[in-house]
Amino acid sequence: MAEGILDITDDTFETEVMNADLPVVVDFWAPWCGPCRAIGPIIEELSGTYNGKVKFVKCNVDDNPLSPSRYEVRAIPTLLFVKGGEIVDTITGMTAKAKLEETIGKLI
């Protein structure tokens, strides 16, 4: 796991995401998912760019099936953008860095 990106579980999702002080980007992923591996370095770069302004977390859907089910994640990668315990945006699939930056900009 990259520095600055927290690996979360079903048990820690509520505390780390919905009760977080900062806006949160949740990356639902799996190790076997090619697009997930492709977007990973972009997420890592953005976590450095927005360090202290946005919290970045990753949730492995294979190891943690409850959280993706609860938030209706139907495909991966899916990114949830959460602010104040509310999901404010969702992006599914491989996405350009510029689109991610635009969405994060609305979050902060």
TrEMBL record:
Name of the protein: Thioredoxin
Any one Pfam family match given in the protein's UniProt record, by short name: Thioredoxin
Top-level taxon in the UniProt lineage: Bacteria
SUPFAM superfamilies xref list: Thioredoxin-like
InterPro entries membership: Thioredoxin (IPR005746), Thioredoxin-like_sf (IPR036249), Thioredoxin_CS (IPR017937), Thioredoxin_domain (IPR013766)
UniProt keyword terms in alphabetical order: Disulfide bond, Electron transport, Redox-active center, Transport
Entry keyword Transport: yes
Annotated family: Belongs to the thioredoxin family.
